[in-house]
Amino acid sequence: MQTHFTIDCVIYSFNEGKLHILLNERNEYPYKDWWALPGYFVDMHEEMEDAVKRILYENTGLKNIFMEQLGAFASVKRHPQGRILTVAFSTIVKYDEVHAKVKPVTNYMKQAKWFAVEDLPELAFDHKQIIQESLSKLKSTLHYSTAIYELLPEKFTLTQLQQAYEAILGKVLDKRNFRKKIANMGYLKELAEVQKGVSYRAARLYKLDKRKFLRHIGAESPSNI
Fold it and tell me: What is the CATH number of the domain that holds 212?
């Protein structure tokens, strides 16, 4: 037996210079054939943590993904069947690690597909609002969390880092000023390695020094990029 509340999952990744969100094409009413966040009803005797794991796996095929609670959404008109509360969770995954694994294992979703955040289809329920609130929270935590680096490979270029910032902030950043501010922060480690397998001039690779990053956010107030 199901409860009268659901779980919805906002799953971010970064690919080809753009921030992406994973969506499902629904295979049941209401909103059959519409795109929506991965989500479903919680069972009556199911613990919240278990429900998140089950629904995430059924909708996406992904396992062992840490999900952080975003908030509850309970607008009277958010669901055609009446007041059905949803608890939204969010996470960040590395595209190269998960894209080959993404596939629904349930009949109530047709498929799962990545969409760039600036090119989302019309969404079911209030999922546009959930995504907007999630993006706002992501933006607000950029300067004191490692979220931006969780989108990137372990070793990345400064161009990739700037593209990730731009994708989340929704604006173009001046290259010179961006690199100057990043250098002044002092928590990126420049590696002796450069990009491999590119047709253009290979750029220097960097990685995050988490120890220095934690010291930085502990010693200073968040600064704007």
Answer: 1.10.10.10
